[in-house]
Amino acid sequence: MANALRTVSKCGIAGLLSASRHGPCRLPHLLGQKMTNSTSSKVKVDLDPTTGVAVMCMQSPPVNSLNLELLTEFASTLEKLEMDKGCRGVIITSSVPRIFSAGLDILEMFRTSPEHCADFWKAVQEMWLKLYGSNLATIAAINGSSPAGGCLVSMACDYRIMADNPRYSIGLNETKLGIVAPYWFRDTMANTVGHRTTERALGLGLLYSPQEALEVGLVDELVPEDQVLTTATQTMGKWLAIDEHARQVTKSLMRKPTVDKLLFNREADVQNFVSFITQDSVQKNLGMYLKMLKSRKA
Ligand SMILES: CCCCCCC/C=C/C(=O)SCCNC(=O)CCNC(=O)[C@H](O)C(C)(C)COP(=O)(O)OP(=O)(O)OC[C@H]1O[C@@H](n2cnc3c(N)ncnc32)[C@H](O)[C@@H]1OP(=O)(O)O
């Protein structure tokens, strides 16, 4: 048990699981690597060595849609931070004005090959496993709209602070696209807001205003737009003031069953996604939704 808990503190919940199934946690070469002010194409990361807090900023205009590239970079950045002994907490935010993330990039699932869909879905799984199973304290600084996959990223954090701007929205709106949020999206939401609220939200494909999201517990706090990041930084101090080992093990106890469900069924989940998304009727729905997005501009 003591060994297992030590492994948790290095690798997060997913790391513990990979340790128990495949030997010691992966990517030992990343241990000790320092990341300060590194800039990559779609995720900028700033690690403050004095506080141990990193800010991961999605910077993929126009809408931070989660395509294969952004998802891969997101997951690998998080993995490096996880392995960095100088990092204890991560704040996730966006540099794109008015948008946190538009969710999964629909173009990755529309008229692409089954092989591409499978690779894309593996990247979505990987991002969620790393974030939801992270040992780091994680805060979403939601400084814009956050539909579907954007909402998933937010919910996978330990705490959510959203800009109090009624023009922004957040929620799992998949049914509005004629698609179905998979069970691990649903579980993440149910763990956040409870079963009944999730049932209604998913069934109706609800996108909540910040005030509504606060009321149902989808976000924890609303602040004026220009204070989202500073509030996230202050709040992180509270999470990091808790004994690290106690916080990490408690987080693992809360999240491990949900992480395990996907971790032990990844391949079946990929197959399920590919066979669903490649159906003609689903492709037609995605095509219509894309058309609708474009026609709103005109
Ligand atoms: C068994 C498994 C089943 C499958 C499970 C699949 C789970 C899926 C999860 C998802 O995340 S699906 C994606 C859901 N996302 C949305 O519904 C958001 C759609 N976008 C918007 O509502 C708006 O774009 C916005 C985010 C509110 C921003 O509005 P704004 O007016 O600022 O920008 P737009 O002019 O609308 O968009 C600019 C540009 O970007 C394109 N775009 C927007 N969102 C996406 C997206 N998610 N994927 C791909 N492309 C997107 C939009 O079409 C515009 O393109 P152009 O017209 O400039 O070419």
From TrEMBL:
Keywords: Acetylation, Fatty acid metabolism, Isomerase, Lipid metabolism, Mitochondrion, Transit peptide. Gene3D superfamilies: 2-enoyl-CoA Hydratase, Chain A, domain 1, 6.10.250.170. It catalyses: (2E)-tetradecenoyl-CoA = (3Z)-tetradecenoyl-CoA; (3Z)-dodecenoyl-CoA = (2E)-dodecenoyl-CoA; (3Z)-hexenoyl-CoA = (2E)-hexenoyl-CoA; (3Z)-decenoyl-CoA = (2E)-decenoyl-CoA. Its EC number is 5.3.3.8. It is found in: Mitochondrion matrix. It is an enzyme of class 5 (isomerase). Pathway: Lipid metabolism; fatty acid beta-oxidation. Belongs to the enoyl-CoA hydratase/isomerase family. Homotrimer. Key enzyme of fatty acid beta-oxidation. Able to isomerize both 3-cis (3Z) and 3-trans (3E) double bonds into the 2-trans (2E) form in a range of enoyl-CoA species, with a preference for (3Z)-enoyl-CoAs over (3E)-enoyl-CoAs. The catalytic efficiency of this enzyme is not affected by the fatty acyl chain length. This is Enoyl-CoA delta isomerase 1, mitochondrial. It comes from Muraenolepis orangiensis (Patagonian moray cod).
